[in-house]
Amino acid sequence: MGDISLTQVLETLGKAFPHTVLRPGSPRYEEENGKFWNRDNADVRPAGIVAPESAAETGAILKVLSDTKTHFAIRSGGYMPVPKYNTSPAVLISLSRLSSIELLPPTSPSPPLVKFGAGNTWGPIYDVLSPHGLVVPGGRSRDVGVGGFLLHGGVSHFYASLGWACESVVEFDVALASGDVVAANASLNADLFWALKGGSANFGVVTAFTMRTAKLEKMWGGVRVAVGTGETASRVFTALHAGIQGDVDEKAHVEVISFYNPTACAGGDALFVLSLAYAGEVEKEGPAALKGFMEVEAVNDGTRVTTQRELAADDKVNVGYDKRGLFRAFSYRGGPQVTLDIYTEYYALVKASGVFDADPSAMAALLWLPVGQKLASGTGVMTLGEDAEPYLSCNICIRWSSPSVSERIHAIADGIADTLKKKLQDAGVFVPFTYGNIAGVQDMTFAGLPETTRRRLREVAGRYDPEGVFQKQVPGFKLV
């Protein structure tokens, strides 16, 4: 901070925007500070939370924070679990009031666009779209915020056909550190438009997104739960790898989640939660493209003809905002045996780690995202080159209740992640890039992108944020 104190900064903002600045102890402050998926972040207690009501207010607030060199964080939905990445002991900009949702009249035979404020979660957007038979490539859970999801790329139910969700954004409204508010689209500020589709909060504060929609009255999908025996795991991983190789059915979607808690998994095996979806009509036994997952013996099967809105309401184990949590992640290529080895070693390490002695309520999960051709290759921020091969992104997620064991559990997770990464590196299948929405602070996000992409991102940041406010004063994954 410069020559002005944090107290003076908050007083300045409070005078200019009396209904926007929230201080500790007020009911609205406590409500805002409770909106974190990782409860450890709610313990940070910013000196002030600033909740702008418009893009113009956001820009004016940024100008004050920039001029005074005040550190601040930005929060959309609060799902980012990395400690202190979406909060700050100084100032938190909460985008929760930027919650408008508007269907824009179509200007062609294409379906209408949808414009929504950055403070939304995906649930209310689906509530607006579903009665019109419209879908959008958004989060697979209602409670995920739109901001971090889209600015880090975003994996939707339609990833195989549409690629990263951010590629369906046609315009961003952005408040810059200078206080200016600009639009970024294919014609206006096109370099910023490119950079925001995966470049995160490194250029400004996005206050609104405009996205393409598609007509889809009904789809098929749901969650299948299976006991993760060795045979079941082998079947699941064979099907997972088959889904990103060769000619894939672009209407199919899968997210493989496994989790373990000694009480919930009394038999000793982890449980699989197979999140399946298909953007089209299917036979009674399910889509052929997901046959391998449908043949797995399930203890519960929630697949059915449904809608995007209903699918996003399915319980997928780890989406609640009532616990502490962490992410670590890595990416790799290879075959089903590699994934089976990772699965087997992860749960052996977790069971021997003392996590459940530290907190018996803890849950350890391992999640896989198939990064097929539409996600892996191309010229966008999130791609690894025009000829990049498909790969898997794997996420370690641990959740627990007691704040007293947070440091210990983070250390355990770091050790497990390092062990698994080394295993993949030694096997020659490690991919040095991690999707930011499932990554931890030690994982390779921007550092794993091609140098040409990283250099271009830095150049764009230099043009729109010449003082480096979003590199120096704002936490998060930074441009390397």
Automatic annotation (TrEMBL):
<keyword id="KW-0274">FAD</keyword>
<dbReference type="InterPro" id="IPR016167">
    <property type="entry name" value="FAD-bd_PCMH_sub1"/>
</dbReference>
<dbReference type="GO" id="GO:0016491">
    <property type="term" value="F:oxidoreductase activity"/>
</dbReference>
<dbReference type="Pfam" id="PF01565">
    <property type="entry name" value="FAD_binding_4"/>
</dbReference>
<dbReference type="InterPro" id="IPR050416">
    <property type="entry name" value="FAD-linked_Oxidoreductase"/>
</dbReference>
<protein>
    <submittedName>
        <fullName>FAD-binding domain-containing protein</fullName>
    </submittedName>
</protein>
<keyword id="KW-0285">Flavoprotein</keyword>
<feature type="domain" description="FAD-binding PCMH-type">
    <location>
        <begin position="42"/>
        <end position="216"/>
    </location>
</feature>
<dbReference type="InterPro" id="IPR016169">
    <property type="entry name" value="FAD-bd_PCMH_sub2"/>
</dbReference>
<dbReference type="InterPro" id="IPR036318">
    <property type="entry name" value="FAD-bd_PCMH-like_sf"/>
</dbReference>
<dbReference type="InterPro" id="IPR006094">
    <property type="entry name" value="Oxid_FAD_bind_N"/>
</dbReference>
<dbReference type="GO" id="GO:0071949">
    <property type="term" value="F:FAD binding"/>
</dbReference>
<keyword id="KW-0560">Oxidoreductase</keyword>
<comment type="similarity">
    <text>Belongs to the oxygen-dependent FAD-linked oxidoreductase family.</text>
</comment>
<dbReference type="InterPro" id="IPR016166">
    <property type="entry name" value="FAD-bd_PCMH"/>
</dbReference>
